[in-house]
């Protein structure tokens, strides 16, 4: 049976104001931060390889890493939007090229439940976070670990209306499949290049405002 609507969202930089790997670099690798950020910008390795190295190099026990995770500046309006979506009968799903290790802990900390998470599996190992990515997995991407477009394409088949919120290049193909796109940061010019309309947002307060002003999007199925 087709459900009414689905809200897909990236995590780092979208549901949070700062990527977790930025938190780690700025806290523990300040002397090397310029090079580390340059390597990220110039894509000297895949995002998956880069994040795997950063997360494995944290050098703290599990309790210490939990403290680091709680330094992630989680959008204070995100829970309101998630609750709003769920209250109206929609499903909220996170698609992230980071790791579920910190996303699940953030959601637990803020009392967020009933949210499916598609992300790179992570476990604590050797004073860091190890990403356990399966190259044979259904949604595997050699660049990001997870292929957001494949996930979105599969999930959206069961819904009349799909929203997508994202902020960067890995979100582009998945966002293009949605009926309404909420775009931050680098995703905006990428959508401009595709001549794809979107709702420009700074944070989830803007998402909440849009949903309150456009209640018809929850009833007008476009699939």
UniProtKB/TrEMBL annotation:
Cofactors required: Mg(2+)
Lineage: superkingdom: Bacteria
Span of the signal peptide: none
Cell division as UniProt keyword: no
Any one biological process term the GO annotation gives: L-serine biosynthetic process
One matching Pfam family: Put_Phosphatase
Alphabetical list of PANTHER family matching this protein: PHOSPHOSERINE PHOSPHATASE, POLYOL PHOSPHATE PHOSPHATASE PYP1
Protein name, as recorded: MtnX-like HAD-IB family phosphatase
Organism encoding this protein: Sporolactobacillus sp. Y61
